[in-house]
Design goal:
- Helix content is 42%, strand content 14%.
- By secondary structure, the protein is an alpha/beta fold.
- The strands form 4 sheets. A 7-stranded parallel β-sheet has the order 3-2-1-4-5-6-11, with helices on both faces. Strands 7-10 form a two-stranded parallel ribbon. A two-stranded parallel sheet has the order 8-13.
- Helix 3 runs parallel beside helix 6.
- The chain is globular and about 60 Å long.
- The N and C termini lie far apart (47 Å).
- This is SDR family oxidoreductase.
């Protein structure tokens, strides 16, 4: 087999950074593309580029000829129509820039469960909920969805250039990243740290359905394993896969376990949704004080916490759980206990001086 050379698009994010570490550990040559690539990971070759600037993108990739491309990024916009235009263009520009090289053998695209639930606005407003557990053969929804636009760009480029593809649909991804737009694990760590410092209760912010229903999440390390597996396994070619840890649980159990780790008082669902975005709205100055007092590496709370996204996840009016049968049948057997996903993350954040 020819040497494996990876181009990780979004290498500074939760998914991309964990994937880069896994690939480098397995001996891959790894390039990390971002507008401001992280140069702190040993062995990762940074590529600074903006996916919305085609000419500059081609120039930045002039000396890069990847065998495998991993697309792990997206850009949030004000409307779904704008999400479709922008995120579709990002994938198209990238694959157009690589097309003349004829080096790409596999493209892996990371999307998520909004493939089944619809965009944020759709599942917040309600409507007919999808059947759970969510399965890959469920049809696309009759709604605008930028995930579909990203997939279609990959499919079109694959038909043109002859590479194979995989699509990966995690639930909420748990892992370390700074400056990430969707980061439930670190958001809860920051919230619990603030509760600890102020004596405020660690109050459940979400819905009754999420508090009482079954749920699952995706450890970024397990997602990296599936990305590598699918991109190097013949049976997994040209297929979409769900990817979650493999256990199911209820927030009514996990919430108290998280509170215990931080030594704070857990308060469960009390009949009302309490927006975490509103709860943390005035906590920026307090976090700066905590950062100064404890010598933290990141004094800007907004670069650690994304309470708006946590509200969307925990406020869903239905339980959300995911079927993993498709990849299990093909031999992907990785498993990750969810409580360990959170506590491993909290320990890493503390060791890296990101929480007190």
């Amino acid at each position: 087999m020819a040497e494996n050379t990876a181009l990780i698009v979004g290498a500074s994010g939760i998914t991309g950074s964990n994937l880069a570490q896994a690939l480098i550990a397995e001996g891959w040559t790894a390039y990390g593309l971002a507008r401001r690539p992280d140069t702190g990971l040993a062995g990762l070759r940074p590529v600074a580029a903006d996916l919305l600037q085609p000419e500059a993108l081609r120039a930045a990739l002039a000396e890069v000829a990847p065998s495998h491309v991993f697309i792990t990024t997206w850009m949030r916009n004000a409307t779904e129509a704008e999400n479709i235009r922008v995120n579709g263009a990002m994938v198209r520009n990238l694959l157009d820039a690589l097309s003349p090289k004829r080096s790409v053998r596999h493209v892996a695209l990371v999307t998520g469960l909004k493939h089944y639930l619809g965009p944020f606005d759709a599942y917040v407003k309600g409507g007919t909920p999808p059947l759970t557990p969510l399965r890959e053969d469920q049809p696309r929804l009759p709604l605008e969805n930028f995930y579909y636009a990203q997939e279609d760009e990959v499919f079109a480029a694959a038909a043109r250039d002859g590479f194979h593809w995989s699509v990966h649909r995690p639930h909420t991804v748990i892992g370390k990243a700074v400056g990430n737009a969707m980061n439930l694990g670190t958001t809860l760590a920051a919230y619990a740290s603030i509760c600890k410092a102020t004596g405020r209760p660690f109050r459940w912010p979400g819905s009754a359905a999420q508090w009482n229903g079954l749920s699952d999440v995706t450890d970024a390390r397990l997602l990296a394993k599936q990305l590598i597996w699918a991109s190097t396994t013949e049976a997994a070619r040209d297929t979409a896969f769900n990817v979650v840890n493999g256990d199911v649980w209820r927030w009514s159990w996990l919430w108290g376990r998280i509170a215990d780790w931080f030594g704070v008082e857990a308060v469960g669902f009390d009949g009302t949704i309490h927006s975490l975005e509103a709860e943390m709205a005035g906590d920026g100055p307090l976090w700066r004080e905590l950062a100064q007092r404890h010598g933290l590496a990141e004094p800007d709370l907004a670069r650690l916490a994304s309470p708006w996204h946590t509200d969307l996840d925990l406020g869903r009016p239905i339980e959300v759980m995911t079927d993993m049968s498709r990849s299990r049948r093909l031999g992907f057997a990785a498993f990750q206990p969810t409580e360990d996903s959170f506590t491993d993350l909290f320990a890493q954040l503390r060791a890296d001086r990101l929480i007190p």
